[in-house]
Amino acid sequence: MNNLVRKSIQKIKPYSSARDEYKGLEGIFLDANESPFGDLNRYPDPHQKKLKTELSKIKSISENAIFIGNGSDEVIDLVFRIFCEPGKDKALIFQPTYGMYEVSAAINDVDLIKVPLNENFQIDFDNANFYMNNPSLKLILICSPNNPTGNSIDGIENILNTFNGIVLVDEAYIDFSDNVSLLQKVTTYPNLIVAQTFSKAYGLAAARIGVAYANPDIITWFNKVKPPYNVSELNQQAALNALQNRTKVLSQIELIKREKKKLIQNLSELNIVKKIYPSDANFLLVEFDDADSRYNQLVKVKIITRNRNSVVKNCIRITIGSSEENEKLINVLKNSLT
Ligand SMILES: *Cc1c(COP(=O)(O)O)cnc(C)c1O
User: Fold this and answer.
1) Is 98 in the pocket of ligand 1 (CB under 6 A)?
2) How confident is the model over 195-225, as pLDDT tens digits?
3) Is 170 in the pocket of ligand 1 (CB under 6 A)?
4) What is the pTM of this model?
5) How many CA atoms lie within 13 A of 323 on its CB side?
6) Do strands 192-197 and 166-170 pair parallel, antiparallel, or not at all (unpaired)?
């Protein structure tokens, strides 16, 4: 594993914070140049111990296999930074997919191989296998359920069985899916990283909490490279609260799933809707007669959807909202049948 890590990163001697050097919780703390005044005056736990303990129980995985990031966007960026030599190594994505992979690759000066998904938005393995032995390919990113298409990606283990570099599986929408997470597979595949987030099902997009599950060796590298206090105290608290109220979150997920069924039914009755792609997520990719004009009609009444016309012809990505929000959307679309 360690030989996959960038040379400059291998040599890093990580920053040792005040909270690393003295781990006790009680005392007179004169070691971190904090203010003695206020409620948020102390640096947060750099290792997010309480949050990891909770996640470890819920996900049945050891604490040293967990990394907490400032959103999954930090996880994605760290994966590029740790494993890809800028200007030299390559990463691979299957398109269409989440736009941040391309941005992160560009920021890190990593050449991105873009392999198209097939007509069912699944991996074409004959096509993909061509790249697996490319010695400069270090990282494959797979989003499942995939954004913006909504479907789960089949056969990810085929990749894990043939590719020796790092495989990041982004499961931002896994809580809405009936398919099992690849999380438990991190003990089988030392090169697998599974990213999840509190931004979608857990309703904490504002708090910026992303999680990576992987072999403890990989987690050690994440910890060496991350900024020492990458997750704020407020954000750690927010995530802990959400986990403590998990039954509420789970019932919200069920509600969103029911709303999704309703929305699919209602959309399918409109003749401006040409196709609704199957979704394991909290959004639908919908093909309209004319995505640009339908998108603009919705914006006029302040209903904002994601126009994906440039990515999948005439498609709009629609997030499942509250019951009232979804009804408004349907009413506006019904009345625009012209
Ligand atoms: C929304 C989303 C995320 C979440 O990113 P955060 O930084 O955790 O908010 C990650 N990956 C995909 C594919 C997403 O759609």
Assistant:
1) yes
2) 999 999 999 999 999 999 999 999 999 999 9
3) yes
4) 0.97
5) 4
6) parallel
